[in-house]
Amino acid sequence: MISGSSGRPDGGGAEFTAEGLEPVLREACAMAGLDCDGAELLRLGSNAVYRLTSLPVIVRIARDPSTLAEMERAVSVARWLETKDFPSMRVPASVAQPLIVDGLVVTFWESVQDREEYATVGELADLLRRLHWLEEPDSLGLPYFDPLAKLAASLAGLDGVSAEDRAFLEERTATLAKDYDRLDFVLPFGMIHGDASIGNILRHRDGHAVLIDLDGFALAPREWDLIQTAIYYDRYGWHTKAEYAEFVHRYGFDLMNWPGYETLADLRELMMVSWLGHQVTTSERSAAEFARRVRSLRTGEGRDGWGPF
After folding, report:
1. What is the reported pTM?
2. 143 contacts 228 by C-beta, under 8 angstroms
3. What pLDDT was estimated at residue 8?
4. β-pairing, 99-101 with 2-3?
5. For the chain, counts of helices (H) and of strands (E)
């Protein structure tokens, strides 16, 4: 970690808006020796994501300064995956990172493509199968994935929703915790991506598929990397039957035939809803979708009306 002149690892002073982040972007790029003139803001959510025009480089500024350890690990994972010739996001070799500028965590990534294009569900299965065969080095220091701890922390910070909704989500978590403790996982324990879905596999400008968003890498039962594709098909209809069949064929395992599927699906779904709850104060669309999803959890109906985020 390298701090800028106004860097404070314990909290930022910059307002997390396009205007407030411009000085952060400029200082970070100056420290990295990169030209940020004309940089394009692609997204502003839990991260601000910029594309530089001078070089094929993406700059990511995290809203939450506590993500420093995650981003240090993500950079290390990217460098290690490159040594394995694994198709994933790369980091510029010449840039020492992460950087801390005005208390915010800044990382730099090689741009995968010039226009956003996702790869296929079948290619996701191929990459997950290949990833799950790799044996991670101890030097990465990957954490154990504890979904219940992660969910508890997320719910504890859920300030923008009603007390009633928050209490409901906490009660549902407590019930699922007991079911989760009884699960008998059948796939090997090891390295997972942690957020493996169609949204995190892009088509590289040279044509091949690459995994992105590497900060969720952890050690866990491999079922966690399969659950999103399964529920995107089974519960929300975001994948077709043919797409899911292709995913199963190419990975070699159908999670929906495993007895623990419904419990894992319920838990992953709850994590998705809680994540969305953190966006309700910044977006009317997020607030409406959060309300729709909580209503579904309460009634058991209407999941086919969920919109992808």
Report:
1. 0.90
2. no
3. 46
4. parallel
5. 9, 10
